[in-house]
Write a structure and sequence with these properties.
By secondary structure, the chain is mainly α. Helix content is 62%, strand content 0%.
Length: 80
């Protein structure tokens, strides 16, 4: 996995967290104290974030934890 793919995967997971909670980018950006455009760019393009603290703030603004961010999704094999 390249660095770009890594950040893109994190951005997609944050988007997933945000949508699960029914939050807008504007709401999450405000809680995380970042610009909405930065959140949108990260979610969509996976652009590199300057610090792990910013990623933590985005994750926590969605009501999730860093542990959840890095825990692989469970697949219910009964539905396969």
């Amino acid at each position: 996995m390249t660095e770009q793919e890594f950040y893109k995967a994190i951005g997609q997971k944050i988007r997933e967290f945000r949508k699960q909670k029914g939050l807008t980018q504007k709401q999450v950006a405000k809680k995380a104290e970042i610009h909405q455009g930065d959140l949108a760019t990260f979610e969509n393009k996976g652009e590199r974030i300057k610090s792990a603290d910013i990623i933590r703030r985005m994750v926590e603004a969605t009501g999730h934890t860093m542990t959840e961010l890095f825990t692989p999704a469970r697949v219910d094999v009964r539905n396969l």
